[in-house]
Write a structure and sequence with these properties.
Chain lengths: ~270, ~280
């Protein structure tokens, strides 16, 4: 925004007290993560003593079979969830922003509900659903559970993109004789694909990150990475958790920075 | 111009949401009125009356207090941070926004576990206090109420900062300059202009922190102890340990209603000013 260019000269929000809180806030955000990373290189099993630099816990992590199974499960679930929820979420977004229905308000409310309702409530209600229909808990139940909340996130992201799309483009295409399917595939989709991509990415991340809903809807053989980390925290803390965490922090930093770079290149 | 109804678009997603979202909620709603899943005994209100038991009432009130404290804590740190970030020069603003976003995209369990390194018996604080001779025995910092509130603030603070930045970015800076030219000092500008203009973001951020904090299960489970469990932990115990699914269901319904009341209050107080969730995602 152009009116922001003059900011640095005036210095709103750059006063001493505001700066101090900001720096403290960043320290607050990063200090625990920083120490977590440092101790992933500690040779000792106990964080109290620094026994020297070592890649020991990374080696242990590398040879941790159940950990790799958990990673594999996490990726299978996240990929399946992304496909299902991106497809269904995009349909919902197109329906609600380009069509007229009776009970439009109800449809919008239903879409927002999974986002606002606490995940523990959603988790136990899905558990009851699967118990009620004697559905065996496993990879499939987790994928269905993840999709039940991811659809809403995808739909909202795509709807935000659709609302920025100039409607006259679609009207012009219609006037020129395009049918609705052609308008969809040749006008709407090419224009909103970054939104769909962003929605899919969000669904993938939510899936990888989810603990609560997975905890209640997974069964034997569908342990995911967050479940594995949880049981390590609960039943035996070793610096292997620090090593796993460090890798995850590295991944999320790379992901956020590359999305940002990709975003800037578009502009 | 809106095109007429198209069931091909709306049916698949809403069929899915009906089966995997509405139906499950209906099932726990019905369960909450039964005598622990025994349908033959008819319906009962006892699962809702059980919440009045001091044991459970205490947990519910504690959850509300923790959620309020977490919201205030995030606001206290998040508001100045958002103000600083929103008015930084473009380069610094991008960097700082990324720094707020990275924890947001980092695994939640990992971020909560990270506090073990600070608060644990062998953590940073205890190590320092023991080394400096202030204490002789490590302090119990983990598994306390303080640790839970801290963890809630830590976990949810990006949800406070990002909406406030979004609201502040929409401010017309010439207003602030005009106020300055007319003699207002920095504090006056903040109090009389920035705060009211950023209020949609502040309210949105507070809701986005309060809701997940109220229903939190992971944070008290990992950082809390017996005396700092929240309603999410009680729900989990009813389903996984005690196996009183009906009481667990009534607690879930109560939590859900509390959250929905909060959201509708937010939507009612300024629909036109409030921004849609999609803008933040």
């Amino acid at each position: 925004m152009s009116h922001r260019d003059a900011t640095s000269n005036v210095g709103f929000g750059q006063g001493k007290s505001v700066s101090i809180v900001t720096i403290s806030g960043l320290v607050f955000l990063y200090l625990p993560i920083f120490i977590l990373i440092v101790y992933s290189f500690n040779d000792s099993r106990f964080s109290a003593s620094w026994n020297g630099f070592s890649f020991k816990w990374y080696k242990i992590m590398w040879h941790d079979g159940p950990l790799w199974t958990a990673i594999k499960n996490t990726l299978i679930i996240a990929t399946a969830n992304t496909l299902v929820s991106t497809f269904l979420g995009t349909l919902a977004a197109l329906a609600l922003s380009r069509h007229r229905y009776r009970f439009m308000g109800v449809y919008h409310k239903i879409l927002h509900m999974p986002i606002v309702i606490p995940d523990v409530v959603q988790a136990v209600s899905l558990l009851m659903l699967f118990a009620f229909f004697h559905f065996t808990l496993g990879l499939v139940s987790v994928i269905l559970a993840h999709a039940s909340f991811s659809i809403s996130f995808v739909a909202l992201v795509v709807m935000a993109k659709l609302s920025n799309l100039d409607r006259r483009l679609e009207e012009a295409a219609m006037d020129l004789g395009a049918n609705r399917f052609q308008v969809l595939t040749q006008v709407i989709l090419p224009n909103i694909w970054p939104g769909i991509l962003a929605g899919g990415l969000l669904a993938f991340t939510l899936s990888i990150d989810d603990f609560v809903i997975t905890f209640f809807t997974s069964g034997v053989g569908s342990t995911t990475l967050p479940l594995k980390i949880y049981s390590m925290i609960k039943f035996g803390i070793t610096p292997e958790i620090n090593a796993i965490s460090t890798v995850l922090v590295l991944f999320s930093t790379l992901a956020v920075s590359s999305i940002h770079l990709f975003d800037r290149e578009k502009k | 111009m809106k095109i007429r109804e198209s069931s091909a678009l709306i049916l698949p997603p809403y069929f899915f949401l009906t089966v995997f979202f509405i139906l499950p909620v209906l099932i726990i709603l019905i369960l909450s009125f039964t005598h622990n899943r025994d349908w033959s005994q008819g319906i009962t209100l006892k699962n809702y009356l059980l919440i009045l038991d001091p044991l459970y009432l205490k947990v519910l009130i504690r959850s509300l207090i923790f959620a309020v404290l977490a919201t205030l804590g995030s606001l206290l740190i998040g508001l100045p941070m958002a103000y600083y970030i929103s008015f930084s020069n473009p380069k610094r603003k991008i960097l700082l926004t990324l720094l707020v976003l990275v924890p947001f995209w980092t695994n939640f369990l990992v971020r909560i576990f990270a506090w073990f390194t600070i608060l644990g018996r062998q953590g940073l604080i205890n190590s320092f206090l023991l080394w400096s001779g202030i204490i002789n025995e490590p302090l119990q910092l983990l598994h306390t109420s303080g640790a839970v509130v801290l963890g809630l603030v830590y976990g949810e603070i990006p949800f406070m900062i990002l909406p406030i930045i979004a609201a502040m970015d929409r401010m017309d800076i010439s207003l602030l300059e005009a106020a300055t030219n007319l003699g207002a000092n920095r504090f006056m500008v903040f109090k009389k202009l920035v705060l009211p203009l950023a209020s949609p973001g502040i309210i949105a951020g507070s809701i986005f922190v309060f809701i997940p904090a109220l229903g939190s299960f992971v944070v008290p489970d990992i950082l809390g102890g017996r005396d700092s469990f929240m309603i999410g932990n009680t729900i989990k115990n009813q389903f996984m340990t005690v196996r009183d699914w009906s009481f667990g269901s009534s607690l879930s319904i109560i939590l859900m209603v509390l959250v929905l009341l909060g959201v509708s209050a937010y939507l009612r107080q300024g629909r036109d000013q409030s921004m849609t969730l999609g803008e933040y995602l």
